[in-house]
Amino acid sequence: MIEMPPNPEISKHPDDDRLSNPAGRLVTRFAFSCDDKDSPLLPAVFDDWLKNKGWQLRPHQRAMLMAQVEGQPTLLIAPTGAGKTLSGFLPSLIELERDRREGGGERWHEQLHTLYISPLKALAVDIARNLETPIAEMGLDITVETRTGDTPAHKRQRQKQRPPNFLLTTPEQLALLLASREAETLFASLKTIVLDELHALVTSKRGELLSLGLSRLRSLAPDARPVGLSATVADPLELGHWLVPHAEGKPQREPQIIQLKGGTSPDIEVLESEEPIPWAGHSARYSLPDLYVLIKAHKTTLLFVNTRSQAEFLFQSLWTINEDTLPIALHHGSLDVSQRRKVEAAMAAGSLRAVVCTSTLDLGIDWGDVDLVINIGAPKGASRLAQRIGRANHRLDEPSKAILVPSNCFELLECRAALDANYIGDQDTPPVRKGGLDVLAQHILGRACAGPFNPLDLYREVTASYPYRALPGELFEQAIDFVATGGYAMRAYEQFAKLKPMKDKETGQILWRLSHPKRAQQYRLNIGTIVEEAMIKVRLTSWKGGSGEQKRLGRFGRVLGEVEEGFIEGLAPGDSFLFAGQVLRFERLEENSALVTRTQHREPKVPAYNGGKFPLSTYLASRVRAMLADPESWSRLPEQVQHWLALQKQHSIIPSADQMLIETFPRSGKFYLTLYAFEGRLALQTLGMLLTRRLERAGARPLGFVASDYALMIWGLRDLAKLEEELGWSFAQLFDEDMLGDDLESWLAESAMLKRTFRNCAVISGMIERRHPGMEKSGRQITMSSDLIYNVLKDHEPDHLLLKATWDDAASGLLDIARLGAMLQRIKGRIVHAPLDSPSPLAIPVLLEIGREPIYGEAEDEMLLEAAEEMGL
Amino acid sequence: MGWQKRLQQCSLSSSLPEGFEERQPDGETPTSSDPEPASPVEYAFSHAGEAFVASLSGALYWPEQKTLLVADLHLEKGSSFARLGQFLPPYDSQRTLALLALDIAHFKPDTVICLGDSFHDVDGPKRLPTSVADRLQALTSAHQWIWLTGNHDPLSSIDLGGEICDIRQMEGAGRAVILCHEPGESAGLEVSGQPDMPCLEICGHLHPVARIPGRGRTLRRKCFVLAKDRIIMPAYGSYTGGLELCEEAFAPYMSEDAKLLVIGRQTLAMHGASISVPRSSSRRRR
């Protein structure tokens, strides 16, 4: 592994140069300086170009060139702003130029040389734009094109026949290309595969799909060299191994890892507001005046929020106080593509003062002169925060400036902890998971779409990828059987098989082939691993013609974007809500569109809050606990929060860092138990499920619970403070690790969470299709039928491949079982109990979450009866 | 009676169809996973002067006539999807019939009437696995069995026993009872007997599902719709989906005094029709 010091020569580049140069952003990312020792690596045209600019190669860029000469799989790990992406392209630019100069350039005419994969469409588009300038300035004969879901069909078709030298695309598009009959010829010439933002991709199912695609590429183009580009991660070697082929579970080569340390420390603060921080809630409404002042004082500000609805709320609120009508824009994944592109273009042109955005802008897009990043809400993870902050001054040589805006007291503790974490550069990226069987099934079908395959070859190929390196042959066979006929013990669907065996004429071996070209069409329609809740288009329309009976609602209008079906279901006709930065009136649902009209109301009637998507990282959690336990450190907190904690100390207990506090108190005829575990929403939800089961068994008659990132609150009909004396259950027994055994099994077997996980797996694996040629299947139907299917499968074939896939997913991701296990271990013998008469200061924010968050409990049928009684039936 | 006691008394297995999962972000209600079904939970009521017993499975028993009614079995829906390349577990017909056999064993009817859409498509009967077909044959030969035709299955030629007809008229206690597939099919029908009394129509087709709000969530549950002079039955089959009561299709039948008999996991509960919210206000009922 090569470790690089921060480049001492960085300060050579004057700002003026950047500003006067239309490609300023790009040039700074190259950050060359004159140095003759680069000449052997650089063809003259590059050398001259650099000399003209007065720049030279940075050490890590030189290392990247060396790695290319040696043909090694390479991983470049560098903090944001080090010019990672273009370091990845430089070797390809040089190689193509050198070939041309030596007379071999002709063969690169309409041949694919470098494939670039990014997790975001927008990133691919941005990179393509950035590449154009040096290519034009040096007069290089290199073609660059993007290929995304937005690329017109005729262009995609042409790209398969006559590809550009550099093709910039996404993992899904790569899967589609690999599943085409042209794949073999298209990729034969491939020399370099650049995988951008690799740290973000590998921990998801998209990463699993990409790893299988990479393995396939290695078979099609044995000379192609993968180059991974990543932000700082917890385990660089693991990420390096992700790039290289495996056999029998072991890496077959060692990757070259170039790690660039350091950069300047970002300049981060927690917002200090005159206004008090609320104890609960997520709107950060109190901070609005401060935010506006900050926006006014900076050139361009990015405001990151965690959910789309928060983005809408903040954007709307800012405009209500935008007296100077500053250009403030909104950017989130649900907005229509054309709207997003408009914002992106305005951003690149430097004509915006602020953009309110969600994680769609998290990744490496370089947006010109952002000089301030504001993070609203809790950052949830130190690495995520570092990524976002890196958006400001996307350069290694200047500190990024960022302000954290907590929306409640608990978040303030978290912000403080995250801030400390960022200073010391701690990393909390999760490890790479075992590859999912659902993704494998999708890949197998894709492989068959490209042509008949030998199962042994495919098995070798699949197990050459890092996430699937330990895949047992038996499971692989089951996966093929699953794709072919559903993999059921009752061989009911042989006549409808998607894959059929055939004999290879030359070798006599058995090959699998697609049974019908229609199946390839189905595959193409259903590709991908992101299963979202069904989305509904929001269509802006208006009332037409006359009044009264004559009035009718126009059915055609501009699509503003898409929202989750569940959100629209929560609206009644006439309700107003925020979307695309406007207050809209919901009129009615029509097929897949929600028809809306403009309204004069300034305050939307339906507040929308979706809990944070990202659970608090383990690492931040431990920091929050430590901070809470150490009253000395409170002095760094705002006075009002200090007061909150002081009250807690007075009223209840402040647990030490290794303790877990449990409080019990009665309230309006019910008994509450709150535990402060700071283990993230997922782990605490799982704990809530398991605890209510146990309490049920103990006869404590629990009624429901609510879980946040920080705490879990359970309530019921019996006093949980007297659990031991009345029911003979001590807290130690209640929290014993054995709850992860039978209780977990029996809960999971019936769990709705598992059913949802199953639905995702069923969709990704192709058992349920999102789309069928000629048929639009609505998400609503999918939800119902996938649950029915789950029940049937569980009863009849409990060992079915999809149930295995579901369990793997749930255990590792959704339920955070590992984390819960670690927590139960940690708190053993360290539970402190405070019996109280009323809720403590820490409990109040949790109490306020009830009613805002879904409540879980066993009492579903009771609810039906209750409702009936209410109606006097 | 407390609900928990009630539950203990009617310990019913979860292998019965569970209707639909509520759509809410997280959370779960566990039920027992005992695969051996016990006796069905039932709910006795009268509607339009006729006494009925509804079963948790979605069947309706008419004691007076010793007749069991089921609607929308959608047999072989799984294989219907398989033809298009979606391989759902191929056990739906077998489960539906097992459930029906339980209902039959419990109520011991003389007559069984399937209110249409008994097969998901026209070719369904041909695809029925032999073992399942044999089981069905045994059921149809042991009872007076009537298949009403539905929109999915004209059932022109069915070789599984029983008789086929479009509409069936029976005599109730006070009025004629018309059994048919789609609501409204009895309109304009020449009714023998009491020409002044409106007849009671019992039908299926719409797959009614209620949305019940409460405690910060919404449950989606199959239900019987007890409307004026009409009962709309829930869909019985293992893979049948549902249509929410707020949908346009129900509008003509949802009078003010309509009631819903909602099928819970382990109980049935009677509600006024207004309990079911249009997909909408549930979230604001806090």
From TrEMBL, chain A:
It comes from the Bacteria. Belongs to the Lhr helicase family. Lhr-Core subfamily. GO terms for molecular function: ATP binding; ATP hydrolysis activity; DNA binding; helicase activity. Residues 287-437 form the Helicase C-terminal domain. Residues 65-251 form the Helicase ATP-binding domain. SMART domains: DEXDc, HELICc. Keywords: ATP-binding, DNA damage, DNA repair, DNA-binding, Helicase, Hydrolase, Isomerase, Nucleotide-binding. Pfam families: DEAD, DEAD_assoc, Helicase_C, WHD_Lhr. One of its GO terms (biological process) is DNA repair. Residues 10-19 have a biased composition (Basic and acidic residues). Signal peptide: none annotated. This is ATP-dependent helicase Lhr and Lhr-like helicase. PROSITE patterns: HELICASE_ATP_BIND_1 (PS51192), HELICASE_CTER (PS51194). Residues 1-21 are annotated as: Disordered. PANTHER family: ATP-DEPENDENT HELICASE LHR-RELATED-RELATED (PTHR47962), LARGE ATP-DEPENDENT HELICASE-RELATED PROTEIN (PTHR47962:SF3).
TrEMBL record, chain B:
GO terms for molecular function: hydrolase activity. SUPFAM superfamilies: Metallo-dependent phosphatases. Residues 1-16 have a biased composition (Polar residues). Residues 66-158 form the Calcineurin-like phosphoesterase domain. It comes from the Bacteria. Transmembrane segments: none annotated. Pfam families: Metallophos (PF00149). Residues 1-40 are annotated as: Disordered. PANTHER family: BLR1149 PROTEIN (PTHR39323). This is Putative phosphoesterase. It comes from Cohaesibacter marisflavi.
